[in-house]
Design goal:
It contains seven helices and two strands; from the N terminus they run αααββαααα. The chain is about 70% helix and about 5% strand. It has a two-stranded antiparallel sheet with strand order 1-2. By secondary structure, the chain is mostly helical. The mean pLDDT is about 85. The chain has helices at about 5-35, 50-60, 60-75, 105-130, 140-155, 160-170, 175-195, and strands at about 80-85, 90-95.
Amino acid sequence: MQIDLPAALFANLVFSVKIAPGILAIVTVVRGLILLSGQKREFEDWTRNSLMSALSIIFLPGTLAYIGIRYTVSRAFGIDVENIGGSTTYGEINLFLKVERPPRVVIVLSALYMIVVMSVFVALSLILLPALLFFQNMPVVLFCWYVAIGVLFNISLRSGDVSLVVASLRRRPRAGALEFIAVMVALVLLYTQVVGVLV
């Protein structure tokens, strides 16, 4: 049976847009609970959060793929990247964005939204493509699924994202507030009138 790959990828993109808010909410809550489980004060171990450190190591390929998506989208939208590094405080690898001269609020929110959608799309593609391309090599299929889970595990709202949005709002208070409201209204209309929310 011949598979229409472009049509399958387009359907995957539409599905990614549908489930992106749910994935973002669920993973943000899960990662938040994990981060809150860490030590709060000075520590003697190498990290304050052993569980997050272990998960970061286990899902390293997926984390690196997510950081690559985050970096590419951020640069495409003109968001300055400070560096890529790890944090012993919370034991995770992250892409640190510059907040000194943030772009307009609409650009920041659009970039963050695109990062989530593209990450979900890449993860689902890694799950579906082996089946669509009839890969019989089980190690390849399992590795694709493993990377996909790692990408999904990293899709969350980060403190740096919130700081960047706040910095954009402070730089242009009136225009930024209007842009923020406009983007939120556009997303609500998108998910209620056009795409539909997957429940």
